[in-house]
Batch of 4 targets.
Target 1
Amino acid sequence: MKNEKAALALIPEALWRLLLVRIQLLFPFNRTAPQLGVKSLETPEVSSEADLPRIRQITTAIRLISRYTPWKSTCMVRAVAGLKMLEKRGIESTLYMGVARDKQGQMIAHAWLRSGSSYVSGDDAMQGFVVVEKFAKVLQAE
């Protein structure tokens, strides 16, 4: 219950982040890429116990509000918004970009975000995608 209330408190920030990222992704990707982290690297697949509740809250907030945005909150928009929310809290993450072929043989793309051992977004559809790039949002210890 406490975790759900904390996640609901993040809804306004999640909505704002989704909007900002949606606008940001209207520009060429090479302007956004440097903000995503270190290209071709991954962060560790372990999470600090202290970070797990916050990761879950951000995951819940992004997944919930992205269904109701008046704009299309694509997988990439959700992944980058989650990355930015985690970064603000000093939590590392890895953004993955993958490709696959749909049933008609057309190339399709997908993005998902992992923080430690938790998937923040996109894990519902990542099966069958081949990772073509990843970005590690590595944060310096203060």
Target 2
Amino acid sequence: MSATTRQRKKSVLRRFIIPVAASAVLAYFAYHAVNGEFGMAGRERIEHQVAALEAELRVLTDEREHIATRVSLLRPESLDPDMVDERARANLNVVHVNELAILRPAAR
């Protein structure tokens, strides 16, 4: 008995498997490059967040500098009498006899 080999006819679809798979992978990455979280559309959103956070940082930095200035006026080396008087009146709720007290909500 002789060994026979069986040959199959190559399918036309078999030639398209690799190009179709490569095109699908390319389409996936192209879609996410445009619409993904870090794609072109996401970049604008991130830049907007960065601008908002930088503005908030500027406000907080200014507020911190203001508070640091007021604290420096209460240091024992450079005690400001007006600041001591203001803090004592605020904490003790006292006024002089000839003064008029105008109550305002605390500014933040």
Target 3
Amino acid sequence: MDDEGRGSGPCPQGGAVPLGPAEPLPYEGVWRFTAPAIDASVPQARHAVRDLLLRQGVPVSDDLAQGLLLIVSELVTNAVKHAAVLSPTVAVEVAVGAEWLRVSVEDNHPYRPTALEADHGRTGGRGLLLVREITREAGGRCEVEYTASGGKVIWAALPLKPARFS
């Protein structure tokens, strides 16, 4: 990210955001790790993100943390299930700003997933729908973008402060 994980909104738009003289908060930063595209990577990614939030002292509520960890599980699961044939590894990135956090999962498969509607006669297939719903309820954004290498990155940005309702 061009803005080193800082920014006033849940998803900095259009390039770098001037940082100004303010010192970054102790929990701000960007962390990225890769994992093999195998089933065992799903809980490992979830635990790595949970441990990162705790280690950095990110001021995240329990509800938001649980939602974020479910998002990580769903996105890594989707990459393992649907992209492993063309992407032997997946990358997980966590960016934390003063007022938001963003998690993204990147793979090298060009297929762009779509959120399926609920089909009660079928198990599975609704992971992206769940990710979008958790993100929306938290007041954040979720997007799927192509990468320069021909793969994709799916990200969810969530505000650290609870969403205000009118």
Target 4
Amino acid sequence: MTARQQVQIEMFRHYLGALGGESLGAQEVSADPVGQARRLFDGGVRKVVFTGPVRLDEPGSRAALDLLRELAAWGVRCEWRASGRPPAWQAFSHLPPPNGGADLDPWRAAYFPAKCVFREGPGFVQIRDRRSGSLECYTVDEFELIAAVRRLAAGADPDACDPAATALFAEHGLLVRAGGLRWWAPARLRRWPVPAMVV
């Protein structure tokens, strides 16, 4: 079992301005980042600062990446730094861009909310992925694949999931491979990022 990268986060009730400086305290990224993101949002947290860098090429960083993905899906502002940035940064381009220099400008320019998401309907899962620059839409309706999506989205280790399902998701870039990292990219769609009449 891979050791989880220890990353601390500081929490704030407001996004910007003077009120944004009022810290609500700090905690570590938990072993249940999906549940942690919901608890933070329900507790009124609207900005989170990752106080240490998050590696983009190590299996131990999966929980921190899960938390980033889920916080963004809840609309929580995230400030973080990346280390070990792989050449294929586009695989992570649906995450809020990390702080850094001009080399991250393409990531900042390409980012928008809900870039890689999934939603579940009766007997199917629909995945919408725009990381490549064009919309790729997948409808999953096989029981085994739906079960794998649910497990991966809940933070399960890909090695503990159905190998045929993870191989299929990896083939389509939905299960990101970077260095030793294997990570589920799509976020569960929590809310439309634009007014409903625009969609």
